[in-house]
Amino acid sequence: MDQSSRRDDTWKLIEPSPGTVAPTDDAELTALQALKSKALTMIALSGRDNVIPYIANITKPYVCWATLKALYASNSNSRKLLLWRKLTSLKLEEGGSMSTFLQHFKEFINELACAGETIADEEHVLNTFS
């Protein structure tokens, strides 16, 4: 089984097709439980450590995904404001790595873009070197 079909099988747990019927056979139930466990593991390992408290006690992959989606995909003004504050307060620490700083900077820029905020090149430069 190739990587994309395994990913598709796991994704079906997060967004099941309409009309999907739950298995009744013991073997199918065991396989489904193993797939759910795999999906939860993949979601947890794909995030940062700071998301674990939000998803630690969730046992259903679609609930886990919905929780993270609500937490990070919000386009609300408060989310945008929080991201702007994080971006403008980001500083290169004494003896800190420039690559780590730029990685964090790029993450905030990408999160803002996902929230619908476009940032001009001049603002990139001003925020980076201010």
Automatic annotation (TrEMBL):
The lineage of its organism: Eukaryota, Viridiplantae, Streptophyta, Embryophyta, Marchantiophyta. It comes from Marchantia polymorpha subsp. ruderalis. This is Uncharacterized protein.
